[in-house]
Amino acid sequence: MQMRMMARDNYLIWTISEGGKRFNTAMPAFKETLGIEDRWKIIHFLRTL
């Protein structure tokens, strides 16, 4: 059985919204390009993986 570390939803929504600059990653912030509903859809999708 594979164990995965699951991030909390509030951390995921913050990371998607603000991007990865704080952690020196290339992921852009999506708060200006995706609405809040679409950002939550991404989180729901990630939970299915």
Automatic annotation (TrEMBL):
Domain of life: Bacteria
SUPFAM superfamilies for the chain: Cytochrome c (SSF46626)
Molecular function terms from GO: electron transfer activity; heme binding
Name the record gives this protein: Uncharacterized protein
Protein source organism: endosymbiont of Riftia pachyptila (vent Ph05)
